[in-house]
Structure formats: structure tokens, C-alpha cells
Design brief:
Helix 2 (about 35-55) runs antiparallel to helix 18, helix 4 packs antiparallel against helix 17 (about 490-505) and helix 12 (about 360-375) runs antiparallel to helix 14. The protein is α+β, with helices and mostly antiparallel strands and about 600 residues long. It has helices at about 5-15, 35-55, 60-65, 70-100, 135, 145-150, 170-175, 180, 215-220, 310, 340-345, 360-375, 400-405, 415-420, 445-450, 460-465, 490-505, 505-530, 535-545, 545-555, 560-570, 580-590; strands spanning about 105-110, 115, 120-125, 185-190, 200-205, 205-210, 240, 260, 275-280, 295-300, 315, 320-330, 430-440, 465-470, 475, 480-485. A hairpin with a 2-residue loop joins strand 5 and strand 6.
Length: about 600
């Protein structure tokens, strides 16, 4: 039988498409054949696709690719594969949204926090009296100082307003009750029975107040230290140190930390807490910031500016008040630094750069924010607000209405909200709440407990004296801890679980796709580029060994006559140059 030279011509085109010699078959009777490069690449990719679908671990592809199944069955598996793929994609999108938008979860720190390793809260005490009556009597009614005094007392001003005097700090310091007269008795734990000198004057929105256990001004402010805090000195034997909620006390400091300032708690209970005896001097009242006589007390972090007017606790004279301190601390895992602040909703110590305060806290940031708004809308700042620039103008009584509108957010609500929204909480923060309990003071027992105050009459004690005890109830407390809600390992686990559950997909499946899509076709093409005759049998063996074995298995099941005819047909389709090699391969493949 005459060999089929047309078959040899197709093989030459297959080799030509992968870069083999440019010799074209001369015995090609078909004039409308496809280009050789297209035919060869399509053949290689078809064979690779078939091999991939047969051997991959991805579910359903072998049924879609199988020609043994009916077309309807293959369509059924195709629709099932697409449906499962879409559903898995939807669930993976949900997992991605959780990982991307809610990366933080707040839990309870399993390790207890000891109060002896944390500073005692800063205490700011303000007398509601804005001026001593003896000092107010020395101010003439037709002066600007009198108008300023009326503003402090929250009274209406009837006289002509003036800009001539804006020195609020000097006026308030001269007319207010000094700290030495307010705090007449102080005991901190069992180590300091005369801590009155540890109260320093500070001007707040409640006038002149006295603060205990706040950071030293050189650690608290960057510049423009308030006038009342410029020349303070720590008590002998007490060293002023820097402290931050994120860093804590320096590791180089020796324990106990009560010998440093700010001081740490010594223990629990009233005996190891802070006990204060306060004199409001009710007989010297000129005007009150509210409608009562007494004190306002605020607990805050040592590195934070107090907010006495809005968050202070009222202390009534004639009563002994016990304030049980409830600390609350929040810590954040360091890996959350990689998460954008927009999603973790907090700032680390080195991320919040303030202009006036040396330490970033949400309260300090809000005060600077309000100062900027006052400068923008009123052209000045209030006397108790931080001066961001040294030459900032202090508001006079003429700007009182503008100041109140900014403070109460009446005219620039959107601007205030936008500014305050940028003041995120600290990622490490320490706050304090106080639970008050009060009862009336017994005059006879008061004289016995405080023998150095026997000169106070019963009337003075009941009207002017207030006793305050601040203490911890528990030696440890549980801090809140911000951690990653869904980390990168959790996200990959969720996606991998969904892909494996719905599709049987894994990382090795990716390797299979890369191999059958790129590596194997390139290798076959490189083999065809070698200038040597390649038989149809060799190409079939290199491209699809599994298909060849299936054909051999089918041939062995045919009758002897049909096998002989098939052999003669194969011999007729092979060129004389490769006949011997092909014949040898057929003989070896016989059962």
C-alpha cells in the first residue's frame, strides 16, 4: 500500500510552528489548511488542557472534559462548577471585607495589671469660689478687671467693654484662694503625712485649681509653660520622671515607684490611698462658678490636661467623701501598627504629633483643636486653652460671645465635629473613674482625728471643711487589649478552607496550573525546535502519554484481523524515513 505523504506534510507544519526548519512539505494537496503555527500551538494547548483536566485535584473538571459522558451530563457538571465557584467567590469577598474593614477586636488582657506598676491618678481640685471677697473688694467697678471678674462669675456685663487688659492668669492668681489655704491636710499612704506641698496651682476652665501627681511641666509641655507652673519644684526625696501609658515607667527606675513623681499607688484601701482635708472658706465666697458652695474634683491621667468643668465630681463641705477609684487601661498589640489608623481607630505615641503638649492623648488633642478653632473664628484663644504659638492673643471680654459659641458648637458645629473627629483615642491609655460615697462629719470625732485643727469651730467645720479619701479596692485589674480580629494567617485560612470545601483547590493546584499552562508547552516547543526528525509516535508520547496508553489498551481488545488492518493503515501513513522506527515502536507495544 502506498504511504500517505499528506500526513508527513502536517507533521512538518507542526515542527515549523515551534521554530523548526522552514522547509515546507511538497506533497500537500490541501489548499485551505490553517497556518502551521496556529495548528501546532492549538494542538499543544489542547493536549495540555486535556491532561490537566484528567489529573488536577480541582473537583468537576474531569467530568466536564470527559468525552465518555453525554453532552447533557457535561453541561450539568459545568453549571454546577460555575455555581459553586460563584458562591465560593461571594463568601471569599465577605471574608476579605471583614479582614480589610474590621481588623481590630477589643478583648480582655489575660495578664493582670498591678496598681503598683501604674501611677496614682492625677487629682485636680477646684474651689467653686472664683474670687475671695476681700480681693474682689479691692477692684473698682469702673475698671476692666471688674468686667473680667464678672465674666469669671458668669454674670452679665453692663459697663463699657474694653480690650486694655487681657492678663487673665495674673488676675486669677491674685484673687483666687491659694492651694496652701485650700489643702490643709494631706496623707499619701503610710510614707507621706505632709503632702500638701505636692499640690501645684493650675488655671483651668474652673479658674485656679490645685493639681496633684501630674507630670512635671518640663515633661508635660513643649513650650509656653503656663504662668502658674513655671517655677514649681518637687519635694525633697521625690524625683520627677517622665511617664507614658505606652512606655510606662522607665525600666531603669528602681521599685517602688512611689519615690518618683508622678507617684505610684502603694496598695489598696484607705490606709494606702490619698486622704485630703480641704477648706473651701465659705465665709470668703464672692461668687461661685455654679449655684452652690463646695469643690469640684477630677481624676485624670498624669500626662493629660484636666477637664474639671465638664467631668468633675462635686464635693460638699461638711461631708466626708470616699472615692473608690476604678482604673481602666487599654493596650494594643504592636502588629496593629501595620493597620491604617482609619481602621484601628487609635494612635500610637509617635503618631500623634501635637504642637503644645509633649504627650498625645485624646483630651490634649481636643484642647489644641479648640484653640485652633478659636484662633480661626475669634482671632484669639481663651486664657485656659493651650497657646500653640507664643504670640497668640488671649481673648478679652469683648470676644466672650464668640468664645461661648465655639465652646458650645452653636455656630460652627460642622467645623468642630470635623476637628474633633481627627483626635482619635490613644492606642495605650489609662483612665480613672470614681465611685463616691459620702456621710456627714462629726465635729467631736473630727477634733480627735485632727488635733492640729482644734481652732475650727463647729460652724466652720460643717460649712467649710471637706474630707476626701481616694483609694483602690483591688490590687490588680484587667486591662482591655486591642488585637487583630482577622490576621493574614486567619484570612488565608478562611479563603483556603472555602476553596478546598467548594472546589478542592489548594496551593499545589496553582502549581499545576502554572505547569500545564506555561512550563509544559514551552518544554514541548523547545524539543520541537531541535533539528531532528520527530515521529508522530514520539510527539504523541511526549504530549499525552495517558491517551496513548488508552489507545493501546483498546487495540489489544480488537480481533486479530482488525489489528492487522490497523497496522497496515499506520504503516501507509508513515514516511519511508521513519518507517523502521515506527515499526519498532508498534512491535514493542504489542501485548
Amino acid at each position: 500500500m502506498r504511504p500517505n505523504w499528506r500526513r508527513y506534510g502536517r507533521q512538518s507544519k507542526l515542527a515549523k510552528g515551534c521554530g523548526q526548519g522552514q522547509t515546507q512539505a511538497k506533497f500537500e494537496p490541501e489548499s485551505k489548511a490553517e497556518p502551521a503555527s496556529t495548528v501546532s500551538w492549538r494542538s499543544i494547548m489542547a493536549l495540555n488542557t486535556d491532561e490537566f483536566c484528567r489529573n488536577t485535584s480541582i473537583h468537576g473538571l474531569k467530568y466536564i472534559n470527559s468525552r465518555k459522558l453525554h453532552t447533557a451530563d457535561r453541561v450539568f457538571f459545568g453549571l454546577a462548577f460555575v455555581s459553586v465557584l460563584c458562591f465560593a467567590g461571594f463568601l471569599m469577598q465577605d471574608a476579605f471585607d471583614k479582614w480589610n474593614t474590621t481588623p481590630v477586636i477589643v478583648g480582655i488582657n489575660p495578664e493582670p495589671t498591678y496598681i503598683t506598676n501604674e501611677p496614682f491618678p492625677a487629682i485636680t481640685i477646684c474651689n467653686l469660689n472664683q474670687a475671695l471677697i476681700s480681693k474682689a473688694a479691692q477692684i473698682s467697678n469702673d475698671t476692666s478687671k471688674f468686667n473680667m471678674l464678672q465674666v469669671l462669675c458668669r454674670r452679665k456685663i453692663n459697663s463699657q467693654l474694653s480690650r486694655s487688659n487681657n492678663n487673665w492668669e495674673e488676675l486669677i492668681s491674685n484673687i483666687s484662694q491659694p492651694c496652701s489655704a485650700l489643702v490643709i491636710g494631706c496623707s499619701f499612704g503610710a510614707v507621706d503625712n505632709q503632702c500638701e506641698s505636692m499640690f501645684y496651682p493650675i488655671i483651668t476652665d474652673e479658674g485656679l485649681c490645685c493639681v496633684f501627681n501630674m507630670l512635671h511641666p518640663r515633661f508635660m509641655y513643649k513650650h509656653n509653660v503656663p504662668l502658674t507652673l513655671r517655677n514649681i519644684a518637687t519635694k525633697n526625696g521625690c524625683q520627677a520622671v517622665n511617664w507614658h501609658a505606652e512606655l510606662g515607667y522607665s525600666r531603669s527606675l528602681k521599685k517602688p515607684h512611689n519615690q518618683y513623681y508622678p507617684r505610684a499607688a502603694l496598695g489598696t484601701g484607705e490606709s494606702l490611698g490619698l486622704s485630703l482635708t480641704l477648706d473651701v472658706e465659705a465665709a470668703a465666697y464672692y461668687c461661685s462658678s455654679s449655684s452652690s458652695i463646695g469643690l469640684k474634683l477630677a481624676l485624670h491621667s498624669p500626662n493629660e490636661s484636666p477637664n474639671v468643668r465638664e467631668t468633675g465630681v462635686l464635693i460638699s463641705p461638711g461631708l466626708e467623701t470616699k472615692l473608690r477609684i476604678e482604673p481602666a487601661k487599654i493596650i494594643t498589640e504592636l502588629p496593629l501598627r501595620k493597620v491604617h489608623r482609619k481602621y484601628r481607630h487609635c494612635l500610637f505615641r509617635d503618631e500623634g504629633n501635637l504642637s503644645y503638649f509633649a504627650h498625645y492623648t485624646q483630651r490634649n488633642c481636643e484642647m489644641e483643636c479648640m484653640s485652633r478653632l478659636l484662633l480661626q473664628h475669634c482671632g484669639c484663644i481663651v486664657f485656659y486653652m493651650p497657646r500653640i504659638q507664643a504670640n497668640d492673643t488671649v481673648c478679652s471680654i469683648r470676644e466672650s460671645h464668640c468664645v461661648e459659641s465655639v465652646r458650645l458648637h452653636t455656630s460652627i458645629g460642622r467645623a468642630v465635629a470635623s476637628c474633633l473627629d481627627n483626635c482619635l483615642p490613644s492606642c495605650f491609655d489609662l483612665t480613672f473613674n470614681a465611685i463616691p460615697y459620702a456621710t456627714r462629719i462629726s465635729y467631736n470625732d473630727f477634733k480627735t482625728a485632727y488635733p492640729n485643727m482644734k481652732n475650727y469651730s463647729r460652724f466652720s467645720v460643717e460649712r467649710s471643711i471637706a474630707i476626701v479619701n481616694l483609694y483602690y479596692k483591688e490590687h490588680t485589674f484587667r486591662a482591655s487589649k486591642q488585637t487583630e480580629f482577622i490576621g493574614i494567617s486567619d484570612f488565608l485560612s478562611n479563603v483556603g478552607g472555602l476553596m478546598g470545601l467548594f472546589l478542592g483547590f489548594s496551593f499545589l493546584s496553582i502549581a499545576e496550573c502554572v505547569y500545564f499552562a506555561f512550563i509544559r508547552p514551552c518544554r514541548l516547543c523547545a524539543e520541537l525546535r531541535q533539528r531532528r526528525p520527530v515521529s508522530t509516535l514520539e510527539l504523541s508520547k511526549a504530549a499525552n502519554f495517558t491517551v496513548k496508553r488508552a489507545k493501546i489498551h483498546v487495540n489489544t481488545m480488537l480481533p486479530h484481523d482488525q489489528r492487522q488492518q490497523q497496522r497496515q493503515h499506520q504503516l501507509s501513513a508513515i514516511s519511508p524515513a521513519t518507517w523502521f522506527k515506527t515499526e519498532l515502536g508498534i512491535q514493542l507495544n504489542r501485548p
